[in-house]
Amino acid sequence: MALIILYLALDLSLSATAYNPEPRTKWEHSKINLIRFHEPDVFNYSVLLLSENENVLYVGARDAIFAVNSLNIAEKQHEVYWKSSEDQKSVCYIKGRNQETECFNYIRILQPLNETFLYVCGSNAFQPICDYLDLTLFELAGRDEDGQGRCPFDPMESYTSVMVDGELYSGTSIDSMKSQYTIFRKSKQNSLRTEPSKLWLNEPHFVAADVIRARQNSPNGDDDKVYFFFTEISLEFNYFGEVMVPRVARVCKGDQGGLWILQNKWTTFLKASLFCHIPGEKPIFNIVNDVFILKSPDLEDPLIYGVFTSEQSKTSVSAVCAYSVSSVEEVFAKGRFMKSSITELKEIKSEVYNGAIPEPRPGMCINNNGTEMDYTSSLNLPQDNLQFAKEHHLMYNQVIPIGKKPQLVKQDVIYTQIAVDSVKALDSNTYHVMFICTDEGILHKAIRSEHGMHIIEEIKLFPVSEPIQTLLLSSKENKRYIYAGSSSGVVQAPVAFCEKYPTCRDCVLARDPYCAWNPQELMCVNILQERRTEWALIQSMNGNASFCEDIE
Ligand SMILES: *[C@@H]1O[C@H](CO)[C@@H](O)[C@H](O)[C@H]1NC(C)=O
Ligand SMILES: *[C@@H]1O[C@H](CO)[C@@H](O)[C@H](O)[C@H]1NC(C)=O
Ligand SMILES: *[C@@H]1O[C@H](CO)[C@@H](O)[C@H](O)[C@H]1NC(C)=O
Ligand SMILES: *[C@@H]1O[C@H](CO)[C@@H](O)[C@H](O)[C@H]1NC(C)=O
């Protein structure tokens, strides 16, 4: 009953158009020609990597890696099969794993290493391994490195990774029982990980990781930072029982760990909660399903877009919240710390820390503040600073989204993936176009306008309903596509279906920043492909079709 009342309240206060917008156009799968890639008897196309310069899309599936033409993914260029050995499979089976579903090599990591090699890892029948893929021969180098800490054992498990300057940063569990998790980096000098304590990571469900580069010639000598996004079971609210919280965590690239305290552990690991709900209203969107960081050149401050669902609601409801990277940094640089500890009775104590904070501030990257005090590396930070960092890694302050509330709330869908493109429309404004996938293989394309959120179109990417596991956007100037991977295959869709709008009115009322009416050819065209046209194209991002009447 309580829930029903909450939902009524939600519906009333969220003027339905602004908060539960309906897609303006719905494309049936059979009405659009999407290009598809799939190989007979190969499943689980769950990892995609794009090489824009080469026009190649790399696809990681179960027991196989493919290279396909990114402009037409039906054109396969190379393939390599990478299977677990019969011995490994039987060990997997003997340990009680399912021979039909689990004891395979699910490719989990495909990351660029340098011009000639990709770094690849697979779950390898619960014995994860990593290798180098030689792109000139499309062959594995046969290094068979231990993948523990980089690649999950369990193919069903969530994980994340990002390659930064030749070093892999990963977030995953480190054993087959999922009893320990880590944020890990192995480099030539040393390996760094999180403390194996649930105060640092408590059953995290990793969804994304990315690097945010320091501004060039940053006046304070700042470092590049690697961000991780995940949902974990909170320990600060443990008096409510198990509550999930969406988190952002970050480490600094220059971190070398401590010398005695925090040896081979991150000294810069800090985490904070992501706030995503309408203040004072239910539900609270406390599960983050995916994150995309928009780093387009016109943005001084990159934007973090996350899709969220709620543990509280019985019906499906999803939200998109956007955060500026500077607001996250502000929480880490100026926020208050929580102090958490486990008492001898194994109880978790978590409280706001009000005492003095050592200098330089723990958790900050080594910047001018540190070097001025002669701390040039985390290895020579003072003991009290490291001890503080070890005990204070959670911020009390939450990261508040732009506009202090979600950009979009949508009922009856579960959003699972997001990618965001930046498009300059003919009105010279830049629009951030969100491509959001559901667990049923549907794609929503939405923009924010002065009237709230506008879902331009809904696309059925797959003939049958199936969850989309990975979503990737190409950013080529005039040939942009969205790629989606699922258990059954990969689909390539154009970022817009302008040519499907038959009249000027339809074209303009779609309010799609990619589309405009060409009055000469009497066609709705993609503006990225027609920039040099001599004819004034007609587009109205506020949906004023009166320009069309003039010509019709
Ligand atoms: C792999 O694909 C199969 C067949 O579609 C599916 O049943 C299974 O759940 C997938 N496994 C993973 C780990 O995604
Ligand atoms: C790429 O990395 C591999 C492995 O570290 C190395 O052997 C190779 O020389 C590198 N190639 C280039 C072009 O840097
Ligand atoms: C340096 O320290 C000062 C004083 O604690 C602080 O206000 C400033 O934000 C710090 N700068 C950086 C880049 O951490
Ligand atoms: C639509 O455009 C026409 C022509 O420029 C203009 O006269 C009219 O005021 C506009 N209507 C709205 C609602 O903006």
From TrEMBL:
Its main location: membrane. Residues 1-18 form the signal peptide. The keyword Signal applies. GO terms for biological process: axon guidance; negative regulation of transcription by RNA polymerase II; neural crest cell migration; ossification involved in bone maturation; positive regulation of cell migration; semaphorin-plexin signaling pathway. Pfam families: PSI, Sema. It comes from the Eukaryota. It is found in: Membrane. This is Semaphorin-4D-like. It comes from Microcaecilia unicolor.
